[in-house]
Structure formats: structure tokens, C-alpha cells
Amino acid sequence: MANKGPRRHLKRLPAPANWKISRKIKKFTVRPSPGPHAAETSLPLLLIVRDILGYADNAREAKKIINMGKILVDGVKRKDYRYPAGLMDIISIPDTNESFIVLFDNKGRITLKKINNNNAKLCKIRNKTVIKGGHIQLNLHDGRNQIVKVSDPKNPTEDVYKTGDTILMEIPEQKIIDHIPFEVGKLAYITAGKHVGDLVKIVDIEKRKMYPDIITLETEDGTQFKTVKDYVFVVGDEKPVIELN
Q1: Residue 62 DSSP one-character state
Q2: Distance CA 211, CA 90 (A)
């Protein structure tokens, strides 16, 4: 049997639960392209343009808008209607002078929040490696890699970054303009679990060797709860360094 290539459609009923789409109106929806975010944590641009923003009445109109290069993700024109936009991505529409950040609502569904500043993006450091020349490669949550040049590999003073930290990156230049360490007292955004979408304060970090670290957090009303480090995305000190609420 001939290879028909990757499937471009996905049935609506088994689509990820955090997609804010109607399940019974039509049988199929759009399958996201392989990209920087997993299908469970991202939305194809077509669904953002048509279903979330309402700038198109149907798929044909949405595809035309996207193909004309009118939608920017992190400052770059994306013409693939299946391109997956995910957590903390910045969606910009120059024609309407609007920008949005991709977040989760309190039910864990992918949503967009309108923002004013579209020149910077928060990226969580998933892990880091040493590459040729002793330079540091930061592997970020959105699939990109950021190289930190060091002047002396034996004494890499430029390497102040740790796994779990967050960097503020200028887009589309991809230049690091700020660094938020993962530590007690920082403000964090919860990306999964019962408190998804909440802004909370880190009050304790329980280090564990064989298992993920356990983080104790405090909500604005003083309620404390615990979750794993993977669900915690540091975003600032007393307030987020970019608009989140």
C-alpha cells in the first residue's frame, strides 16, 4: 500500500481535552504539525484564527489569512495552518495591532490573553548541556536551544542558569534579556494539576534525588499546596515580568 503521508485531520471527540473546540458540530478538526510543542499543550494556528479569535468563519478563510503571513508566532511569520502554538508563545497580528500570549485557563484549556508588549517571551529551561568549546546549550520548553557563550570553559562565569530557571527572551532576535532563578520567594505560574493557570508564590523546595522535587506554593489568599517541579514555571518576583493576568 502506498504511503499517504502524515494525516492532516483529527477526529474532534478524541482531540486533546484542553482544546476549546465544539466536539459535536463536525466530525474532524485539524491535526497539528510536528513542532516545538506537543499536541496536548498547543493549538494549530487554524483553530486559533477561526475558533479562538474568530477572525475567520471557516477553514478556507483561516488558511488564506495564515498563508498571507498575517499571523506571527514569537515575531516570525508562520504560514503553516497546522503550526502548533503553545504555552507562553506570543501571537501577533500586525494588521490589527494586536498581540496575545498563549496560556491555560483554570480548567487547563488552552486560551489566549491580549497583551501590549509583544517583544519578549518567557522560556523555561528544561535541561542544559555543555557543547563544543565549553559553551552552554540551554534546552527550552518551546523546543528551541539557546547557546550561552563562555570565555573560559574552566571557569564559566557566564553560566548562571539552572534547570527549572526561566529566561526572558527578546523576540524574534532570541536574545536573553533577563533571568529568573527557580528559588523560594519567586512568583510562579502553574501549568498543570488542580491549580493550573494560577499565579502563586514559591515558599519551599524539597529536593529529592530519585524523584521530582516537591514544591510548596502559596496562593494570593494564603492557601498552601504542593506540586512537582515540572508544573511550576517561574515568572517574576512580586509580579510577572510580562503580562499574565
Answers
A1: H
A2: 33
Three cell numbers, residue 244: 499574565
Bridge partners of 113, per DSSP, are: 101
Residue 52 contacts by C-beta under 8 Å, 6 or more apart in sequence? 20, 43, 111, 112
| Amino acid in position 111 | T
Domains of the chain with CATH codes: 9-115 (3.10.290.10), 120-180 (2.40.50.740), 187-236 (2.30.30.30)
CA distances from 115 to 31, 89, 124, 225 (A): 27, 12, 20, 29
Could you list the pLDDT tens digit for every one of the 245 residues in the chain? Answer: 444 444 555 444 444 555 565 545 554 457 777 778 877 788 899 989 988 898 999 989 999 999 999 999 999 999 999 899 999 999 999 999 999 999 998 888 888 999 998 899 999 999 999 999 899 999 999 989 999 999 998 888 889 999 999 999 999 999 999 999 999 999 999 999 999 999 999 999 999 888 889 999 999 999 999 999 999 999 999 899 988 86
Full-model pTM? 0.85
Question: Which 3 state secondary structure label does DSSP give 33?
Answer: coil
